[in-house]
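re: ur question from earlier - yeah i can do the single chain one, its not a big deal. heres the input i used so u can compare w yours
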Amino acid sequence: MEKSKERLKILERIDEFERAERWDEDVEDDPETIELLPNEIDYLNKRLSSKIKSWIANFLGTRFFEKMIKQGALRIKEVRGIENFLAVKGGAIITSNHFNVADNYVIWHSIKKHMKKGLKQKKLYKVIREGNYTASPPPFRMILRHCNTLPLSSNKETMRKFMRSVDILLKRGEKILVYPEQGMWWNYRKPRPLKNGAFRFAVNAMKPVIPMFITMEDSADIGPDGFPIQEHTLHIMPAIYPDENLAKPENVKNMREQNYALWVKTYEEFYNKPLTYLK
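and the output i got, formated as tokens:
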């Protein structure tokens, strides 16, 4: 099967961005960024309409991704280190590498049975980019807007509302997924340098970060884009806790560096080779 020309161009752009160290930029054409205003977002789902839309979005999203798993289009081979997730009680930031629109579902599918409080299913909140919330086309618009997503914003007042909401969610015991690499690089296997945001959220609320890293292996099956379908292994590492004796900037830096070091160790051990970047 001929490989997708669009995918090949994306891979070329990834190599270009890696050489230029443009680590946090998206290599694909994202939806237009339309400013998200404070009155356009209900981060904590306080309104009845928000609760209803959230239920519908989660139902549709679950049905879509579970169908992918059933058909073999999305494959989760193994989960390693679930004991590290279970060791964290209460609120936490989850970090993960970002390489596919379905990578968050690899995480959710792997941890959801461990996120029940009695008969109630706890949620996994996801921080997303502004344009994905404000300008995504159907049919994914409903999911991206209401499937427990927390959009960033270029509007200062909205961002203040975002920060307050993240703090409230963490302190009430929720788990929030953040992609600290920022941009999505399709099927990119290496860890990239991390931004501060995820660790700032954790330090502000004095909550831990649970580093997760997803590795990939080519299966024997070829997808419709002409590339091998990937088999995913989710690695869950021991939580990183803020140090009460450090100032915020030092704490953020310390947690970010620990997270990156754990990702690099996982990458090198799984793929059995040292991490090197293109020059």
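The chain has one domain: 5-29+37-271. not sure if urs matches, ping me
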